[in-house]
Structure formats: structure tokens, C-alpha cells
Amino acid sequence: MESLEGLIVAFNNFYSGKKVLVTGATGFKGSWLVLWLKKLGADVHGYALAPNTKPSMFEALNIGNQVLTVFGDILEREKLQKTFDDFRPEIVFHLAAQPLVRLSYAEPVLTYETNVIGTLNVLEAARKCGSVKAFVNVTTDKCYENKEVAKGYTEDCPMGGYDPYSSSKGCVEILSSSYRRSFLMKEDGYAMATARAGNVIGGGDWALDRLVPDCIRSINDGIKIEIRNPVAVRPWQHVLEPLSGYMVLAEKLYTQGIIFAQGYNFGPDEDSVLTVAEVSKLVTEYYGKGEVVVHKRDDLHEAGLLMLNVEKAAKELEWHPTWTARTAIKETVEWYRRFYAGEEMNAFTLDQIEKFERERK
Ligand SMILES: NC(=O)c1ccc[n+]([C@@H]2O[C@H](COP(=O)([O-])OP(=O)(O)OC[C@H]3O[C@@H](n4cnc5c(N)ncnc54)[C@H](O)[C@@H]3O)[C@@H](O)[C@H]2O)c1
After folding, report:
1. What pairing do the DSSP bridges indicate for beta strands 134-138 and 91-94?
2. Ligand 1, atom 31: closest residue by C-alpha
3. 3-class DSSP state for residue 211?
4. What CATH number does residue 21 fall under?
5. pLDDT, average across residues 15-37
6. For ligand 1, is residue 69 a contact (CB within 6 Å)?
């Protein structure tokens, strides 16, 4: 939204001066979110493990020098509680998780501990601290039982998940629903919603086994891009899309309370569904180099298409997808191109955020 002077009034200036804690602040989505909240004038603190990729978005944006970040595990209850008690946040965005499907097959215990028990610890720390009014609990579209059908999943579809990661996030949804009814519907409770978004792309993701980061790595290493499953179709959205949804949701939870304490889907339009082959080809086109080849598949189960129905977010939150998948890929490639050309990325990332704010629907 633009003011008369042409300045963008993002999120009605709601975040200015708000105390916000972001778990998972050293991760890909967390770093983008922290930078955006800082831009909006929020007082932001982070809680997360040290960055586990090299490079990392946290370091590329120099978040450590901009925001007090406590390096801690969400399984360390005392340290987590102390972080909440010292800072006394009003708003929590909980993003800390083990988010990788393929790693969840190798590390199922770590995945369930981090995602399920870790989330319970964060919910408890927020309740005991007493300062929290709004809590956005980030799960995923994979929390739904994937019936491999072409229709978009609505928020009341059954939870499930084939692989340990998806199932752990389905568990988080069930846990969150119980936690809300058992502990949060009281005077001293807070408004907590779960946010379900799908595959996101954007600059600064160096995680393993994610398509766009894999493509970028191969291009920069001067090797062919190997794709496992060229015909697999997925919905694609830029990281700023779900983050804008989380931020609208937190504002509603804060200002209007428990009527928004539910699950919300944040996904792209139907025309943002592209095959793995199409995405990797677009990456090479926008980058101006790179070659795609099909590599033999392994036997790990990979889910088929999973689309979200986003009518509830449109109706209740007035949230709508902004960029198409093609724009998202183009912006993402531009980010990496500049990073690998040695550009300072804080300013360019802020430019991309501002562009998104201007174009936001
Ligand atoms: N990236 C996607 O495509 C996508 C899609 C849907 C949902 N999500 C969800 O969004 C959230 C963020 O994902 P991301 O892509 O930024 O992942 P990421 O791996 O880049 O970041 C994960 C963050 O969690 C932190 N973390 C992990 N284990 C922790 C622990 N035990 N204690 C404290 N912190 C811990 C890491 O330090 C990091 O800051 C996750 O909850 C993920 O499930 C991501």
C-alpha cells in the first residue's frame, strides 16, 4: 500500500516498535524475516542454532550484527526460557525446525525431537513468560495427508505425512490444536495460529536437496545440473510470499486475538505449478549458463503434487499471492548472480523486499 508521498506503508506500520522473537533466525526463511521486520522498525531478537550451511543467508546479510541472536537449541528448555524471560517478546514467529525431507529419513529421531518436542518447548516458554500476545507457528503444506489428488487442500483436511519430516509437522499441528484448547483459551493465554506454506525459493538458501539451491551450486561449480525427477510437478513461490502471510497473521492475532488462532494455508496460484525440469531450465535461462541432465532416481519415496487452497487466507486475512513462479525464479536467480559476483547483499535484499512491498496484492 502506498501513502500520498509515494512511500510504502507496509503492514499499516504495525511492526514499528514491536518486540518480536524469531526462532530459526539463522535459517533461510528466518534471515529474510528478521531483515524485513528490522526494516519495518521492529525490535527483533533471534533464537537458533549457529548457521549450518556455508555460505548462509544469516552471514550474507550480516544478521548477527543487526539483531541480538541467542545461539541455542529449542531442546534446551532453560536457555530457551531465559531468552523469553530476558526479552519478553510480544510476538513470536516459530520457524526453528529440521525442515529437510531427505534428512528426516536419515535422522528420524532428531527430526521428531526438534519439530515436535522443540515446538512444545517454545509454546511452553511463551506461556510461562507471560508477555506474548501473538504466536505464529510455522508448519508446512506437507502436514496434510497427501492423497495425491489434484485438488487444493483446505485447512480442515486430515493431517498425516508419509516421510518423517511431513509426519512430524502433522504431529505439530495436532499438538498445537490440543495446546491451544488446553492452555491458551484463558485470560493469561496468547493467540497462536499455525501457518502452512509449501516449497519456497529465494536468494540465500544453501540447503542440500532443494532444487534451486542444487541448480545454483552446480552452475557455480561448473558442473551439470542433475535432476532426479524431471516430471514431478510442484507449486513454487518466493520466500516473501509466505513471510508476508505470517506477518499479516501475527498482526491479526495481536490486534484481534483468538478468532484468528487457527490454521492458515499460504500458497501460490494454480498457474505457479511447474515441473522440476521447467524450473531448472528457467534457472539456467535466467542465469545465462548451466546444463540440465536427468540423473537416476533413488528409492526414497517422494510425494506427488500437493496444492494448497488459499481461499481462507484471502477471505479472512486479505492475503493473496503476489509474484508468479516465473517472477520468483527470476528474482531468486538475480540474487544468487549478484552474490557470486561479490556484491554486498544486504542492500539488494532490502531492494527486493521493497519491490515486493510495492507490488503486493
Ligand atoms: N524452505 C521451505 O521450502 C519450507 C517450506 C515449508 C515450510 N518450511 C518451514 O519453515 C521453517 C524454516 O525453514 P527454512 O527453510 O528456513 O529452514 P533452515 O534449515 O534454513 O532453517 C532452520 C532454522 O531452524 C534452526 N534450528 C534447527 N534445529 C534447531 C534446534 N534444535 N534448536 C534451535 N534452532 C534450530 C536452524 O538453526 C535454522 O535457524 C521450518 O519450520 C520449515 O519446516 C520451509
Report:
1. parallel
2. 73
3. helix
4. 3.40.50.720
5. 98
6. no
Please report the atom of ligand 1 found closest to the CA of residue 58: 39
CB 58 within 8 A of CB 31: yes
- Strand segments, DSSP code E, in the chain are 19-23, 43-48, 68-71, 91-94, 134-138, 191-197, 200-201, 225-227, 233-235, 237-238, 263-266, 273-275, 292-294
Show the cell assigned to 342. 561479490
Q: What local confidence, expressed as pLDDT, does residue 298 receive?
A: 63
Looking at the 3D structure of the chain, how many domains does it have?
Answer: 1
Residue-wise pLDDT tens digits, 79-98: 999 999 999 999 999 999 99
The DSSP code sequence of 216-255 is: HHHHHHT-PEEES-TT-EEE-EETHHHHHHHHHHHHHHHH
**Cβ(45)–Cβ(83) below 8 Å:** yes
Ligand 1 neighbourhood includes 345 CB (under 6 angstroms) = no
Q: Where does residue 144 fall: left (phi above 0), alpha (psi -120 to 50 degrees), or beta otherwise? A: beta
In this structure, are strands 19-23 and 91-94 parallel, antiparallel, or unpaired?
A: parallel
Write phi, then psi, for 351 (nearest 5 degrees).
Answer: -60, -45
Residue 8 — very low, low, confident or very high, per pLDDT cuts 50/70/90?
low
Output the nine-digit C-alpha cell for 115. 519439530
Peptide bond into 55 cis (omega under 30): yes
Would you say residue 1 lies in a domain?
Answer: no
Give residue 243 CA to ligand 1 midpoint distance, Å. Answer: 13
Residue 9 lies in a domain: no
Please report where in the chains the cell 508521498 appears, as a residue. 5
> pLDDT tens digit string along 198-242?
989 999 999 988 999 999 999 999 999 999 889 888 899 999 999
Residue 118 lies in a domain: yes
Q: Which three cell numbers stand for residue 161?
A: 505425512
On the 0-12 / 13-18 / 19+ scale of CB atoms within 10 A, 249 is: buried
Can you give the pTM of this predicted structure? 0.96
Which residues are 264's β-sheet partners?
A: 195
| Contact present, 79 and 70 (Cβ < 8 Å) | yes
Place of cell 535422522: 107
Determine the pLDDT at residue 107: 98
166 lies in which domain range? 15-359
Give the model's pLDDT for residue 186. Answer: 85
Q: How far is the CA of 187 from the centre of ligand 1 (A)?
A: 31
